[in-house]
Design goal:
Elements lengths: L8 E4 L2 E3 L1 E6 L2 H16 L4 E2 L2 E2 L5 H10 L5 E2 L9 H18 L4 E5 L3 H12 L4 E4 L14 H10 L3 E4 L2 H9 L7 E3 L3 H9 L9 H9 L3 E5 L8 H16 L4 E5 L4 H7 L9 E4 L4 H10 L2 E4 L2 H6 L7 E3 L8 H5 L2 E3 L4 H13 L1 H7 L11 H12 L16
Parallel strand pairs: 3-4, 3-5, 3-7, 5-6, 7-8, 8-9, 9-10, 11-12, 11-14, 12-13, 14-15, 15-16
Antiparallel strand pairs: 1-2
Helix pairs in contact: 1-2, 1-7, 1-16, 3-4, 4-5, 9-14
The structure holds uridine-diphosphate-N-acetylglucosamine and uridine-5'-diphosphate.
Uridine-5'-diphosphate binds next to helix 1, helix 11 and helix 12.
Protein name: UDP-N-acetylglucosamine 2-epimerase (non-hydrolyzing)
Enzyme class: isomerase
Organism: Arthrobacter bambusae
C-alpha cells in the first residue's frame, strides 16, 4: 500500500482518507475521466483533487461543464501552435510547483496524450504512485500514432497500477513484463460516459443539425485531427469529402471541426460552398453522441470515436494505417482504410451502395466496455491505497 500518512487528509468525521489526484488536459481525457471523477467524489474513501493542465481550452471546458466538474487546479498551459515540448515542459513545471504544496497519495492519468505522460513523469519524480487509465494499448509502431504510441509506453514504465480496458491491452502489458498483480481489466470508461449521455436526446445548439435530425437524411459523420495525418494527407481527406458530397447529393456530411487551425486549414477549403456539407464547431459531448446515434456511417481518425461507434452499431471507417484498438476491427464493425483520397471515396461509396456490406459492418458490439469501468477503477485504486479491494474484471468471471 502506497498511502503516506503525512499526506492523508481528514475528510469525513473521524476518518482519515487518502488523497487522489486525477490529472487531465484534453477533450478525450476529460470525457473518459469524468465518470471516474464522479465515482471518486461519490466514494467516502478518498479526497479527490481534480487538476487540469488546460492543454485544450474550449474543448476541455466544454466537457467539464457538461459533466459538472469544477477543477481544483488549472495549469492553463495552452498556447496557440504549442509544440510537444511546450506541453511537456509547461505541465511538468506546473505540477512540480503544485506537488511541492499539495502532494496527493496517488495520481490518475488517462491514455496517451502529452498531458498524461507529463503528469505521470511529474508524479514519479515526486515519488507519487501513478494510476494509468486505458493502459496497454499498442499499435506496434512507435511513430504511429505520433506521439501517442511513445507516450503510452513511457507511462507504462513508471505506472504502479495499470487499468487495462480489455484483455488484449492486458496481454500487451504482460508481454512487456508488467506483473499481472499490477493490472486490472476495467473496460473503457468512455463506454460509461457514452451510456450516461447518448439516450438523453440533448438538443443541438446549431439549428441546422436539429433540422437535419428531423429530415431523416443519411448522415456521414466525420472527425479528423491526428498529428501524423496533418498536411497532405488531411488535404486529401478534404478532397475526398468534396467528391463524396458531389456524388451523393442525398447524403449530408457533418464535420465538427477540431479547434486546431492546422486541421481546419487543411480540410475545410475543399468543402466551401457544398450545400450538403455541414461544418460545425466541436460539438458538446451530449450533442456529439446524439449525432453519432443518428449517423449512417462514421469516418474518423479518432481513438474515442472508434470505441464509441461500435456499441451503437455504426460502421466505422478509420483513416489510419494501424490501430491500437483491434477489438472492433476483429468484430467487423471497424475497417482501417488509411488516408488515401481514392480509397476513402471508394470505401464510403461501397458502404452507401452495397447493402450486404453495410449490414455486415453495422453490428452493435461492445468490446470496449459494459459501463462499469469507473466502478472497477475506484475499487482497484482503493486496493492500491489500502482502503478496499478490486472487484470482478471486465470480460472475466471471477469467483469471490
Ligand atoms: C491532442 C493530443 C492527442 C489527442 C487530441 C484529442 C497530444 C500530443 N495530442 O492533440 O493525443 O488525440 O488532443 O483532440 O497530447 N486548440 C485550441 N483550443 C482547444 C484545443 C486545441 O485552440 O480547446 C488548438 C491550439 O491552437 C493548439 C492546437 O489546437 O495549439 C493543437 O492542440 P494540441 O493539444 O497540441 O494537439 P491536438 O492535435 O489537439
Ligand atoms: N467528441 C465530442 N465532440 C466532437 C467530436 C468528438 O465530444 O465534436 C468526442 C467523441 O465522442 C470522443 C472524443 O471526443 O469521445 C474523441 O476525442 P478526439 O477525437 O479529439 O481524441 P482521441 O479520442 O482521438 O484522442
Amino acid at each position: 500500500m502506497y498511502m503516506s500518512l503525512s499526506a492523508a487528509k481528514p475528510l469525513f468525521w473521524g476518518k482519515i482518507v487518502p488523497s487522489i489526484m486525477p490529472i487531465f488536459g484534453t477533450r478525450p481525457e476529460a470525457i473518459k475521466m469524468a465518470p471516474i471523477v464522479h465515482a471518486l467524489h461519490e466514494s467516502d474513501e478518498f479526497d479527490c483533487i481534480v487538476t487540469v493542465t488546460g492543454q485544450h481550452r474550449e474543448m476541455l471546458d466544454q466537457v467539464n461543464e457538461l459533466f459538472g466538474i469544477t477543477p481544483d487546479h488549472d495549469l492553463d498551459i495552452l498556447q496557440p501552435g504549442q509544440s510537444l515540448s511546450d506541453i511537456m515542459t509547461r505541465t511538468i513545471t506546473g505540477l512540480d510547483k503544485l506537488f511541492a504544496i499539495d502532494k496527493p497519495d496517488a495520481v490518475i492519468v488517462q491514455g496517451d496524450t502529452t498531458t498524461s505522460t507529463a503528469g505521470a513523469i511529474a508524479a514519479f519524480y515526486h515519488g507519487i504512485p501513478v494510476v494509468h487509465v486505458e493502459a496497454g494499448l499498442r499499435s506496434g509502431n512507435l511513430y504511429s500514432p505520433f506521439p501517442e504510441e511513445a507516450n503510452r509506453k513511457i507511462t507504462s514504465q513508471i505506472t504502479a497500477l495499470h487499468l487495462a480496458p480489455t484483455s488484449t491491452s492486458r496481454a500487451n502489458l504482460l508481454a512487456e513484463g508488467v506483473h499481472e498483480k499490477d493490472i486490472v481489466v476495467t473496460g473503457n470508461s468512455v463506454i460509461d460516459a457514452l451510456f450516461t449521455t447518448v439516450d438523453k436526446q440533448i438538443p443541438f445548439t446549431d439549428p441546422q443539425l436539429e433540422q437535419l435530425a428531423a429530415s431523416g437524411r443519411k448522415i456521414l459523420l466525420v472527425t479528423t485531427h491526428r498529428r501524423e495525418n496533418q498536411g497532405d494527407a488531411m488535404r486529401g481527406v478534404g478532397r475526398a469529402l468534396a467528391r463524396i458530397a458531389d456524388a451523393e447529393p442525398d447524403l449530408v456530411i457533418v464535420l465538427p471541426a477540431h479547434k486546431n487551425p492546422v486541421v481546419r486549414e487543411a480540410v475545410l477549403p475543399a468543402l466551401e460552398g457544398k450545400s450538403n456539407v455541414i461544418v460545425t464547431e466541436p460539438l458538446a459531448y451530449g450533442e456529439f453522441t446524439r449525432m453519432l446515434s443518428l449517423a449512417h456511417i462514421v469516418l474518423t481518425d479518432s481513438g474515442g470515436v472508434q470505441e464509441e461507434a461500435p456499441s451503437l452499431g455504426k460502421p466505422v471507417l478509420v483513416m489510419r494505417e494501424n490501430t491500437e484498438r483491434p477489438e472492433a476491427v476483429v468484430a467487423g464493425t471497424v475497417t482501417l482504410i488509411g488516408t488515401d483520397e481514392e480509397k476513402i471515396v471508394t470505401e464510403v461509396d461501397r458502404l452507401l451502395n452495397d447493402p450486404v456490406h453495410f449490414d455486415t459492418m453495422a453490428n452493435a458490439v461492445n468490446p470496449y466496455g459494459d459501463g462499469r469501468a469507473s466502478e472497477r477503477t475506484v475499487a482497484a485504486i482503493a486496493e492500491l491505497l489500502g482502503v478496499g479491494h478490486r472487484i470482478d474484471e471486465f470480460g472475466m468471471t471471477v469467483s469471490v
